[in-house]
Amino acid sequence: MFSNALAATLARRNVHYGWVVAGSTFLTMLVTAAAMGAPGVLIVPLEKEFGWTTSEISAALALRILLYGLLGPFAAAFMNRFGVRRVVLTALALICAGFLGSLQMTGLWQLMMLWGVVVGVGTGLTAMVLAATVATRWFNKRRGLVVGLLAASSATGQLVFLPLIASLTTEYGWRTALAFMCVMLAATALVTLALMRDRPADLALPVYGETQVTPAPAQAQGLWSLMMSPLVVLKDASRTGTFWILFATFFVCGCSTNGLIQTHFVTFCGDYGLAAVTAAGVLAMMGMFDFVGTIGSGWLSDRFDSRYLLAWYYGLRGLSLLFLPFTDFTFYGLSLFAVFYGLDWIATVPPTVKLTADRFGREKAGLVFGWVFAGHQIGAAFAAYGAGLTRTEFGTYVPAFFTAGALCLIAAVLVLFISRGLRLPTGQAAAAGA
After folding, report:
1. Measured between alpha carbons, how far is 138 from 206 in angstroms, rounded to an integer?
2. Neighbours of 421 (CB within 10 A)
3. Cβ(376)–Cβ(251) under 8 Å?
4. Residues 6+ apart with CB under 8 A from 368
5. Helices (H), strands (E): how many in the chain?
6. CA 146 to CA 299: how far, in whole Å?
7. Residue pair 197/17 in contact by the 8 Å Cβ criterion
8. Helix (H) or strand (E) run with residue 411 in it
9. How far does the chain reach from its first CA to its final CA, in angstroms?
10. How far, rounded to the nearest angstrom, does the alpha carbon of residue 272 sit from its chain's CA centroid?
11. Integer angstrom CA distances of residue 241 from 244, 249, 312, 423
12. Which of 30, 75, 186, 363 is most buried, judging by how many CB atoms fall within 10 Å of its CB?
């Protein structure tokens, strides 16, 4: 295989193949995150063409976000059983199929099925659990940095691609924008096929930062065991207060990021007279600052108490959301918001992953984080639909942004109550792999 030859070449230059896997994962998360963010630019075009309301379109987007989160724990189990590469290729095919099918849609139920269910399942298989799984399988040293890089790719993909998607939609229509996304998904599938490997042991390599090759753990046999393993881990993890605090604060994280900003920011700015391309440009600015902030967060989480980092992140995010309606949507005001909010967009992920691994053990980190991430996406779905309903009923998004800001301030306090050093008893949960 190409990956074997490349791994051997890199080894002679003292470069670990884990960085290639991280790069392939970075690209996958970048493009699938762009696929998650693209529908947020298309709300107004769909309203104009089909006459659907914001709340109706938001219902489909909320279903997609909900499935994106709820599939996380099961995606981790699928990766353990079938391998990362197979799961990623399946996910890319599903997202592409959902977008291609929607080019011919004429009814709201088709939007629900294609963007809600098909794209929701596809993106759910490559959710943030993919980053946690790759980082814990391939890296012992620099794990926080790798999680930061991969988390940054997810948020940056959601934001940086949006100006191009908005421009294509404005110039050529929303179908052209979706066709462009399908081309990007196909190219990513080719890269994954060539470069992705499931574990370092597949190439007779140790985990980065270790000296001994760790063999792949024995796999659970049968579909029933596969489907039950996330539920068994959830049962044991849910007995701890730490799990519920992480779940609740990540619920708030989802409310205040992709559920609200990713889905409704362009339309919110449009209500104040900003063109879609301009608003998407502000999102791109956030993406650039997010890239710096999230990588920096990964570096910091390797060195400082993650609880205090999260308290700062949630507090600053809450203040920035409360400030947004008072910017008057001027260039200066939005730029200031983009800087502070962008630095914080996905900065919460590296310390949350680190807390999960430290408290519940590396072998169960992927599954436990999958359930924590489900809380993130439940919050995102709540915000995606709730904000759309607010605009439909009251003609403004402002209450939704104030609510999200207040919840962030509550999360900043709540995260400080996470205890030190708690671990899930190793004998209680089903083996989940790393």
Report:
1. 8
2. 7
3. yes
4. 233, 237, 243, 356, 360, 424
5. 20, 0
6. 9
7. yes
8. helix 398-414
9. 24
10. 28
11. 5, 12, 21, 12
12. 75
Q: How many CB atoms lie within 10 A of CB 212?
A: 7
What is the phi/psi pair of residue 139, to 5°? -135, 130
Q: What is the dihedral of CA 90, 254, 329, 343, to 10 degrees?
A: -90
pLDDT digits (tens, 9 = 90+) for 362-375: 667 777 888 888 88
For 31-72, the pLDDT digits (tens) are 888 887 777 778 888 888 888 887 888 888 878 877 877 787
Q: How far is CA 360 from CA 70, 171, 226, 233, 371, in A?
A: 20, 50, 20, 10, 12
Of 193, 188, 197, residue with least CA distance to 95 = 188
Q: Which of 267, 249, 257 is nearest to 306 (CA)?
A: 249
Domain architecture of the chain: domains with CATH:
2-200+230-417 (1.20.1250.20)
pLDDT digits (tens, 9 = 90+) for 298-345: 788 878 888 999 999 999 999 989 988 888 787 778 888 888 888 887
Whether the CB-CB separation of 151 and 62 falls below 8 Å is answered with no
Residue 12 CB-density burial (10 A; 0-12 exposed, 13-18 middle, 19+ buried): exposed
Q: What is the mean pLDDT of residues 71-85?
A: 81
Alpha-carbon span 214 to 201, nearest angstrom: 6
208 — phi, psi (to 5°)? -60, 125
Dig out the tokens for 406 from the structure: 């207040």
Distance CA 311, CA 304 (A): 12
